């Protein structure tokens, strides 16, 4: 158990729709990252939020957006869904360690299927 | 740009055999971190180890051991006396030490341990 939860577990949407995925982190984890993992691939970094602001982004279009809330929860929003958005979406929260590197804890993921 | 290569897509071994998972990385950073994660069928990424680029000592943890060789940019993972519960997809990953510490994953190696 990492203390990071995600909802829903599974989701089916149709092309063109919008979706919101949710993540709840451990208390004190002020950094959250989102990853997209297509079938048979490694996770790809989408973006990271620190203290409710985006501070890093991977190679994903603007229709991928996020929010981070003061209660250590966060959201990933995807607009105008495309078939290629079908993937496992992983949330990872971080807490600073003594060496200054953030230890990262992953949630179980949300499996999104776009039809 | 950072890159992680796991050339072995799938490996099958018989229980109690030893198995080594290969990882080769590329980075321009002088300071970085290397990771191994395990992803069982449930989907959650399980952290196994983190290595600082300045620390080339090999590490052993129970049946797991890691061989970090900076000269060849490799960070290989060996499971001794494999067990069925070791069956999973294993990811090698690399993160920058500064900035927002984006994590770059390899494509994973699927390990099947046959009873």
Helix and strand content put the structural class of chain B at mainly beta
Order of helices and strands of chain B: EEEEEEEEEEEE
Distance linking N and C termini of chain A: 32 Å
Radius of gyration of chain B, whole Å: 14 Å
Give the amount of beta strand of chain B, in percent: over 45%
Q: Which residue ranges of chain B are poorly predicted, with pLDDT under 50 across at least 5 consecutive positions?
A: none
Q: Total number of helical segments of chain A?
A: 0
The gross shape of chain B turns out to be globular
How far do the termini of chain B sit from each other? 41 Å
Number of distinct beta strands of chain A = 11
Report the count of strand segments of chain B.
12
Structural class of chain A: mainly beta
Mean pLDDT over all positions of chain B: 92
Main beta sheet strand tally, sense and closure of chain A: 7 strands, mixed
Low-confidence stretches of chain A: none
What's the shape of chain A?
globular
Strand content of chain A: over 45%
Biggest interface pair, counts: A-B, 28 and 24 residues
Fold and architecture overview:
The complex is a heterodimer of chains A (115) and B (115). Chain A is an all-beta fold. In chain A, 0% of the residues lie in helices and 55% in strands. Chain A is built from no helices and eleven strands. In chain A, the strands form two sheets. In chain A, strands 2, 4, 5, 6, 9, 10 and 11 form a seven-stranded mixed β-sheet that branches. In chain A, a hairpin with a 4-residue loop joins strand 7 (64-68) and strand 8. The mean pLDDT of chain A is 90. Chain B starts with a strand and ends with a strand. Chain B has 115 residues and is mainly β. Chain B has strands at residues 3-5, 10-14, 19-21, 24-26, 32-39, 46-52, 59-61, 64-69, 74-79, 88-96, 103-105, 109-114. Chain B contains no helices and twelve strands. The mean pLDDT of chain B is 92. In chain B, the strands form three sheets. In chain B, strands 2, 5, 6, 10, 11 and 12 form a six-stranded mixed β-sheet that branches. The A-B interface holds A 2, 33, 35, 40-45, 48, 50, 55-56, 58, 88, 90, 92, 99, 101-109, 111 and B 4, 33, 37, 42-47, 50, 52, 91, 93, 97, 99-108.
């Amino acid at each position: 158990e990492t203390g990071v939860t995600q909802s829903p577990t599974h989701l089916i949407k149709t092309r063109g729709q919008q979706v919101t995925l949710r993540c709840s982190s451990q208390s004190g984890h002020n950094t959250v990252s989102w990853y997209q993992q297509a079938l048979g691939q490694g996770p790809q970094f989408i973006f990271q939020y620190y203290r409710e602001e985006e501070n890093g982004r991977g190679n994903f279009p603007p229709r991928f957006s996020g929010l981070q809330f003061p209660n250590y929860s966060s959201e990933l929003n995807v607009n105008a869904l495309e078939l290629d958005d079908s993937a496992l979406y992983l949330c990872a929260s971080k807490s600073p360690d003594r060496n200054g590197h953030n230890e990262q804890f992953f949630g179980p993921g949300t499996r999104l299927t776009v039809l | 740009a950072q890159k992680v290569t796991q050339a072995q897509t799938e490996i099958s071994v018989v229980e109690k055999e030893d198995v080594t998972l290969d990882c080769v990385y590329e980075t321009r950073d002088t300071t970085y971190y290397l990771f191994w994660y395990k992803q069982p069928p449930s989907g959650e990424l399980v952290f196994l180890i983190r290595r600082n680029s300045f620390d080339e000592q090999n590490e052993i943890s129970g049946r797991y051991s890691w061989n970090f060789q900076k000269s060849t940019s490799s960070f290989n993972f060996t499971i001794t006396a494999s067990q069925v519960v070791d069956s999973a997809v294993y990811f090698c990953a690399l993160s920058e030490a500064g900035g927002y510490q984006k994590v770059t994953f390899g494509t994973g190696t699927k390990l099947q341990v046959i009873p």
